[in-house]
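Q: Give me the 3D complex with magnesium ion.
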Amino acid sequence: MALILPNIIGHRGCAGYAPENTLEGIHTAADMGVEWVELDVKLTKDQVPIIFHDDDAGRTTDTTGPIALMTYDEIRELDAGSWFGESFIGAKIPTLEEAVDVLIERGLGVNFEIKPCPSREKETAEAALDILSTIWDDHDKLLISSFSHVSLEVAFDMAETWNRGFLLPDSESEVWMDNWEELAKYLKVSSINLNGNTATRDQVEAALDLDVPVLAYTINEPDRGRFLQAWGVDGFFSDVPDVLQETLFVVH
Ligand code: G3P
Ligand code: MG
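A: Here is the predicted complex, encoded as structure tokens.
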């Protein structure tokens, strides 16, 4: 499928202005004119795909504990907005389906990053792809990415024609593994999504050599964005998409 990417993708929704990975964040991005958002997908204990980043609830909700041990009903009770600001009290952790409803309503494209809790790489991708195959039609506006090569391979096996994004560096070792090019080619990825704050120019150029779009996360500083733009990076994930848009893409 052709991938129609914008220059800027709202990171975790629009994480600089609304609590990350919430419906409120998706609406905030849409209100700002952002065309795509990136959202993280995990599984509840009872196998419901939800939009959430961390393995533990503590940083972004009003409780603590491993997400993988909480049922959907328990997760539904959590407040995922009050940590961010009073105006977001009561924001919920959305399901994947709820997020898709809002994305379609607002006409946004999306990068779903499969973010499995440890040892749930396969089932998280399977559950997410199962749901998406029934409720998402516009595959030019969908990118499935993951740091987990197991999750990416599941996506490849279940839906070879969908667009996949290869995330670098390795999330544990924080280095680019020796065989990353081989893996990216084997998985037939449509984009390389690299850490733009740590990547070297040589790494960016090696990624560009694969002849697929290169996207950099998470770029909130225009100066860093300018460097990456000069090196040839095609697009950016940002918590503050308006700042990047204004400084990198608006001609004054
Ligand atoms: O998908 C790009 C970026 O979101 C990867 O890092 O930790 O913010 O999910 P993280
Ligand atoms: Mg992410």
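A quick observation: The chain has nine helices and nine strands.
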